[in-house]
Design goal:
Blueprint: H1 14-23, E1 29-34, H2 39-44, H3 56-64, H4 67-74, H5 87-93, E2 102-107, E3 110-115, E4 122-126, H6 132-144, E5 156-161, H7 163-170, H8 173-194, H9 198-214, H10 219-237
Antiparallel strand pairs: 1-5, 2-3, 3-4
């Protein structure tokens, strides 16, 4: 989407994206973060892909203008009372990094890269469903190699079948409980993401400062001085 107006930046997190697609009505799938870049790991996830009959330009227009999708998306943005409406525009004008998501999927025997910043899907050659794990690993490694050594501002996620459904089908109570526990953790983390803690932090600071003032003259300044000294010691130990 070239025009980002009205769309908030959300965290690249498996819990966020799983909850997002569920809010959009997508059933029986979830996102899983990949911590190992090898074909066996990808193959074990039983990845799915979905197709649509929309032409690319119409699909992009429909997505960017969809109020329900935008509302569901923005629900996972971090809450903050301080919003700089010019930040995104200034970043683009100054050539700053553009954080976005790129998808790889096999369609009709071809591996495609779907990048919203590109005018069309990018073909990476022939690829069957069985070949996808090996093929996509090579493409991902080639892309990662373009970044400077030590670059960590990206992560990998896979769209997979809802692991709770699979656990129920085979009667694996332990796996089901593990997945339910993970979902509860995601729900808690997403609640925290939506919360604005500025007021809470302000009250805590007022309480701390008030407590030091009651200790007598100079107590607050002494406390701040000790904190600065401790910070300097920690910095020197690095």
């Amino acid at each position: 989407m070239a025009d980002g107006g009205g769309w908030s930046t959300i965290e690249s997190d498996e819990g966020v994206f799983t909850s997002l697609i569920e809010n959009l009505g997508v059933k029986d799938v979830q996102f899983e973060e990949l911590i190992s870049l090898d074909a066996d790991t990808i193959r074990s996830l039983s990845l799915r892909h979905f197709t649509t009959g929309f032409p690319p330009d119409l699909l992009g227009e429909a997505l960017s203008n969809s109020e329900p999708i935008r509302t569901a998306h923005n629900a996972f943005a971090r809450s903050s009372p301080f919003v700089d409406e010019t930040a995104r525009q200034n970043q683009d004008d100054e050539g700053g990094d553009v954080y976005h998501f790129i998808a790889y999927t096999p369609v009709n025997g071809t591996l495609y890269e779907l990048d919203g910043l590109q005018p069309h899907p990018i073909s990476h050659g022939g690829c069957t469903g069985d070949e996808f794990p090996e093929k996509v690993i090579g493409v991902l490694r080639e892309r990662i190699a373009r970044y400077p050594e030590g670059e960590t501002r990206f992560n990998l996620m896979a769209v997979v079948r809802d692991l709770r459904v699979a656990a129920r089908e085979i009667g694996d109570a332990e796996a089901l409980e593990r997945e339910e526990r993970k979902r509860r953790g995601w729900a808690w983390e997403n609640t925290l993401r939506r919360s604005n803690f500025v007021g809470f932090i302000g009250e805590v600071l007022k309480g701390v400062v008030g407590g030091k003032d009651r200790e007598g003259e100079g107590a607050f300044e002494e406390w701040v001085g000790k904190a600065r000294e401790e910070t300097q010691r920690k910095l020197l130990r690095r």
